[in-house]
């Protein structure tokens, strides 16, 4: 089957569903999820305060967690299983796109936790404009993490130890630069209660799509 046919939306969604089920069954997501919930428990414990509260810190914490999750999704199959999945899907496109979609779906779940926590359990009002700011900023950090995770996983980085070292280095170097988009700009907008960082969110999506394109190029040439 041609690569073009393999990229049909229905086939891509089927692959995404298969990969998501594989991730859930492997339970490898539990460790980053538990670590993330523990971090949020510390940040939002007691009264989270008036907005932005702990959102700048939770958005920054979301960055490495999303990268970690993306590595788990991309590495959920070993190379032999991946080859079988690519053949069954009709090409590399639906598999790489499905991997990206599962990572982005995980981002939405991770974003929902810090967004809902102070609203549900806090005693201060969070108006719609502030919620929009928080949502856009958290999404920018999460999607950027997904881009980093895809670039640090198979087929680009074969060994999980190197994935961890490379991902940690990228996150540390980029997260501490407040002027650097998308993460630095998004966290800065949250801290200053500025306008929603839509440009940073769009850039994060471009980075994620670019990372997926790099993965597709490498895997297609193997």
Automatic annotation (TrEMBL):
Keywords, ordered alphabetically: Membrane, Transmembrane, Transmembrane helix
Keyword Membrane: yes
Transmembrane parts of this sequence: 29-46, 52-74, 86-110, 130-153, 160-180, 200-218
Membrane keyword on record: yes
Taxonomy, superkingdom: Bacteria
Protein name: Integral membrane protein
